[in-house]
C-alpha cells in the first residue's frame, strides 16, 4: 500500500472524506487506518463545528491533501473551484493546530501558477498560494505531470485514456518524464511527508520556492518519480 501502514514511524493514518480508501483488510498495518466521514459542503457553507472538529481533533503531524477534480467532473468552473480550491483550503485550515509542528503535503499540478491564463492552472496556483499562508511548519507541493492510472479510470473516459497512452508514448522521447503513475505519485507524497520533517532528503529531491513571500518545497514530476522510487526501495 502507498500508505506504508506497516512502517514503525507511522502510528495512525486518518482518512477524511466522503469515501473510505479501498485498502484490503489483510494489508500489513491495516489496523492503523481509520476513516472519518467528512462533509465538505457543511464545512464550507455552514461552518459546521462538528465537521471542523473532525479535522482539528486529528492533531496530525503530517497532513496530506490529494483532493481534486476536473472541470468536466465538477460540472463547470465555479463548481471546480469550490471543490478543487475552496474545499482544500478550508480543510487544511482546520487541520492546522496552533503551536504544533506540522507538515502539509499537497498534490497540485504541473503548470500551476496564479498568473496563468488557463483557469485550471490558475486555480491550482491560487490554491498553492493560499496553503502557503496557513503557517504550517513545512509545506511541500507536488506538481506532477500527466497522471496515468494503471488499468484506466473507473469512469472509462475514452478521450482521457487515449491521451494517456499518447503521452506515455511521447514521454519516451522527452529528456525528462512527462507522465507519472498514480501509485508512484502516492508513494512519493508519503516519502516526502516522512522525510520532510528532517529536510535532508528534500534538499536532494526538491527545491525551495517563494509563494506569497513564504518558502515552500516544490516537487516537479521528475522529483515526484524519484521520491516514489525511494519510498518503494525503503519499503522492501
From TrEMBL:
Domain of life (superkingdom): Eukaryota
InterPro entries reported for this sequence: NAD(P)-bd_dom_sf (IPR036291)
Coiled-coil intervals: none
Gene3D superfamilies documented for this protein: NAD(P)-binding Rossmann-like Domain (3.40.50.720)
Membrane disposition: Peripheral membrane protein
Cellular component terms (Gene Ontology): mitochondrial outer membrane
GO BP annotations, alphabetical order: import into nucleus
Cellular localization per UniProt: Mitochondrion outer membrane
Chief location: mitochondrion
PANTHER family: OXIDOREDUCTASE HTATIP2
Family: Belongs to the FMP52 family.
Protein name in the entry: NAD(P)-binding domain-containing protein
